[in-house]
Amino acid sequence: MNVIVCKNYDEMSACAAEILAAQIKEKPNCVLGLATGSTPEGMYANLVAKNKSGEISFADVTSVNLDEYYPLEPTNEQSYRYFMNYHLFDHVNIDKAKTFVPNGLAADPAKEGQDYDAMIDSLGGIDLQVLGIGRNGHIGFNEPDSYLIPGTHVTDLTPSTIAANARFFDSEESVPKKALTMGIGTILSARKIILMVSGADKKAAVMKLLEGNITTECPATFLNVHKNVTLIVTEDAIDR
Ligand code: GLP
Question: Is residue 44 within 6 Å of ligand 1 at its C-beta?
Fold first, then answer.
């Protein structure tokens, strides 16, 4: 795993944006796998600036997002579709018809998961996947468990994830209890992966990942089997 240690959140955001910009320049019609959460917000702000200055164009880019709460309507301000529009899609020259987020209102979520993976396959796969990490080592919404599911699927959120994400909602009770998420296999099928991590509260998960052991109790450790992962981490989230 390549590891880039950054002084702070702004440096991490700029570094990740540089990697995405390089991907878009190298392959203007690339497929980007995108993530939500507070971690990538600064990266999106950098990408918006690069688009406005003419450095990069999203005209031919396709995006596929990692996950979405279930059930939750896309117009809900806490939905990941809303997040993506708010932080990126509404401010860059991307064709919204080529931006995909799992459908939080799917009548048949199991089928939605299968269709989502088939759609990613039909696009030719993901060129570059952006990830954040949960404090418990989850990626997307693949929570620690005794087993992990390869494909995109509906999953229960753990109490700790519901509590961590409650800060975005009116109350803990209003956080959806389920989500649709790319599975570990979907994520690992991306050709390149960048994992962004910021803050001392993520250090335990980062150190578990860097130990190199693979365990379903820390889903991020599965990134150790991928050949092209770059960890972009702030210095307070890693022991050296
Ligand atoms: C959510 C998302 C993850 C994200 C994680 C960390 O649960 N499903 O994709 O990585 O939270 O979020 P944050 O960046 O806000 O700490």
Answer: no
Among 51, 67, 153, 165, the active-site one is: 67
Alpha carbon distance 21, 160 (integer Å): 34
Tens digit of each residue's pLDDT (9 = 90 or more) over 28-64: 999 999 999 999 999 999 999 999 999 999 999 999 9
Task: Show the domains of the chain with their CATH numbers.
Answer: 2-201 (3.40.50.1360)
> Which residue owns the Cα nearest ligand 1 atom 13?
37
Q: Which of 87, 103, 138, 165 is catalytic?
A: 138
Q: Tell how far the Cα of 125 is from the centroid of ligand 1, in angstroms.
A: 23
Q: Rounded distance, CA 16 to CA 7, Å?
A: 13
Closest C-alpha to 131, from 65, 63, 218 = 65
The predicted-structure confidence for 185-239, as pLDDT tens digits, reads as follows: 999 999 999 999 999 999 999 999 999 999 999 999 999 999 999 999 999 999 9
- Concerning whether 201 is annotated as a catalytic residue, the answer is no
pTM exceeds 0.70: yes
